[in-house]
Request: fold
Amino acid sequence: MKKILIQLDTDDQYSAFDRVVAIDSGVDEIMSYANVNPENVEALVHGAIFTRKPDDLNNTAIFIGGSKVEAGEKVLAKIKETFFGPMQVSVMIDSNGSNTTAAAAVKCAANHLDFKATEALILGGTGPVGHRCAQILAAQGATVRIASRSEERAQETCAEIRQAVPDGKVVACEFSDEGIAAAVDGVNLIIAAGAAGVQFLASDELEGIETLKVAIDVNAVPPVGLQGIDPSSKAIEMTGFTTYGAIGVGGLKMKTHRSAIEKLFVSNDQILNTSEIYSIACSIVS
Reply:
């Protein structure tokens, strides 16, 4: 029986990137839909769950993509609400590539750090990737500072993470020219996950953080978020700490994405979201 992936994209045009990765992951057929929202997704879910016998539903799966994570999460909630009994298929959500990118970035850091003894700073922490990096780290026992130009937005992100990780140690901090010193004081890990072209720290500022052990920048567009880290850097030493650039993280991100797609077809009852996709990243030998 053919493996069918139903691609649900919340944007006006579905992602060619996600289609290519699905093909490379061994999917036989891809059905792609754009402008998917909670109001129109029910019929698509019914098409997925009522066309094959319950014992064969592991051969059908749903992938949720698009540029807006909040929109994707709302679609996921409606999909889960539509399932009943054995009538369900496995679902993966990776809106804006946020789950796979965050999972790969944190796994790279895990190669060098004991998270239970780690003070982490997430720059661009209110964005989709930064939010998920912080959530994964909090779930692993790290103390996480979520930095934003708006402390109010950082506080909102902290509250959302505490809902997912009730015991998570997350604090908000305003990252401004005046507040840089306080934000970086005592940190062991920095992950820069801001918008393309935004530089957070110059190389001399990075090198001045005596406690820093790992610095990761997931932006490849010049100027990079952390000056001095080459996008292709993968476990490269830089004046006392280990660095990863966007391309260095990207290899594991792609392996994680493909492995997650493959896992969807193992059974029909999986929901692959942030924590599940991080577990997949951790299972990959890179």
Summary: The CA atoms of residues 106 and 133 lie 6 Å apart. The longest helix spans residues 246-264.
